[in-house]
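Page 47, continued from p. 46.
Same chain as before, 90 aa.
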Amino acid sequence: MANYKIKKLDRRMNGFGKANFTHCITPTWANTFHEYRIWLWETYGPSVELADWVGIENQSEEWSWHTEYGYRRLYLSDNALTHFILANPT
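Result:
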């Protein structure tokens, strides 16, 4: 069983319309959030918090994260999501 929930982004969600982000992953445990974020950083390169994403250069177009208000969400492109599911870094 996966340690995360996947949700397709729509206009109501923060990551919609930013970069190539199409899905949001919400890990069920805090420690898996950090493991997933490290895996994404090593696989796709550096990124930034979603709120800071616009206007910053040299960040990955494939992923970002959101931790404001206690959330632990990862925003991924279609390619990154497919790779993430297949690799399942836990």
